[in-house]
Amino acid sequence: MMNSSDSEPSSGPLKPITDQYYKLARQYQILLDRITPFVLYRWLGSAGLVLVFLLRIVVAQGWYIVCYAHAIYLLNLLLAFLQPRFDPSLQEDLLADEIEGGGEDMGGLPSARDDEFRPFVRRLPEWQFWLSSTRATLIALFCSFSTVFDVPVYWPILVMYFMVLFVLTMRRQIQHMIKYKYVPFDLGRKTRYGNGQR
Length: 198
Fold this sequence. Notes:
The protein is mainly alpha-helical. The protein has one domain. The chain is 60% helix and 0% strand. The chain crosses the membrane at residues 39-57, 63-82, 153-170.
């Protein structure tokens, strides 16, 4: 029997297993909630994990495919972190279609005439970026202990291909940032608006 306010089963042969699962899930969530405010320490811990993983790859002289897949995934996360939630180029196309169709103005990006403050909203928030990259690093580290994932490849080609891919995608992202005039980072001092200016 399932309680409407609780998703845990109340009886059955799997009850001890599900109880233990939900207990571990709650403890995991409590741990995540406690470390949320410590941004610098979270990222330093993740950088340490990446360093351990890279040392494992260099010392073991293998698992280059795992390392390559991990790097591609981290690049994908970085691009999602740098992109706005609502792509300005898509909104621009929608506005052009709406104007051609004679419809009403849908709003969109602030223009030079529009002084309204609109904060940069990321496609991938910082917390999700950190959590996904840390999980991926842990998975890649554990994969490097299994010989199933140690596929023999010529690693310099993978390194060169990743470098080319990184340069091309970051160049395209920077051109997009310049074209639509947005900066995905908070640089400089914080400005207070309203009556509480100091």
